[in-house]
Amino acid sequence: MVGPMNDIFAPIRQKKISEEIADQLKSLIYQGQLKPGQRLPSERDLAKSLGVSRVSLREALNTLQGTGLLEIQQGNRTFVRPITTLSVYDPLVSFSKESPSNMMQVFELRKYLEVGSISLAAERADSHEIQRLDEILIEMEDDLLKNRLGARTDLNFHTTLAEATHNQAYIHIMHTIYDLLQEELRVAWGSVFRRKEKRKKLFQQHQNIFYAIKEHNPKEAAQEALEHLDFVGKEWKESLVKEP
């Protein structure tokens, strides 16, 4: 007997290939197998790996770019974005650009999120991540010796700490914060952190954080992280006030 309840059901339809591709990529991002900032293979290679046409692949990539999970740059280079909806990310960008005071509020958010993430990293960092942090410190020391600014190495250190939490939500949130503050990073590294004595102090602070991580000491790691970020925040604030 056909009744009014039948009206609430919709016919099952087979998914389009592009939807299946998008679902697989989305799942890999949520599981952490594709990380924020990671570049995907070329369209040709990715289509070959998935066994699909480049037309279907491109449709899936465009869909995920529209939801904010991917970013397609010039030359069809595709990168994983942090899991933050555009409705959250875009207003935060506008807010942080409104004034130095607003930017420092975002930095304060970063500070306390990062202190927590570094404490968690001290508990959970595995041997591979500890080795990676050690390698980055060697690069930092080389930057100092050769008088390079080392902004990229600094970012690598902090993103590796986030990954050492083994918490995908933390990883994506920290990448979002770093992305929000990239202009301020440029200002700081181009002004106050251009001075070698300041970079030397930063290096020592990163060393102290690393030693606490290596010893799996969350309390010490959080304390060293707070000291480091208090120093950075003070220097950032002074440099931004000087900016025209």
Descriptive report:
With 244 residues, this protein is mainly α. The chain has 2 domains: 15-80, Winged helix-like DNA-binding domain superfamily/Winged helix DNA-binding domain (Arc Repressor Mutant, subunit A), CATH 1.10.10.10; 86-242, Four Helix Bundle (Hemerythrin (Met), subunit A), CATH 1.20.120. The protein contains 11 helices and 2 strands. It has helices at residues 17-31, 43-50, 54-66, 86-98, 100-124, 127-145, 151-163, 168-180, 182-190, 196-214, 218-242, and strands at 70-73, 77-80. A two-stranded antiparallel ribbon has the order 1-2. Strand 1 (70-73) and strand 2 (77-80) form a beta hairpin. Helix 6 (127-145) runs antiparallel to helix 10 (196-214) and helix 7 runs antiparallel to helix 8. The mean pLDDT is 85.
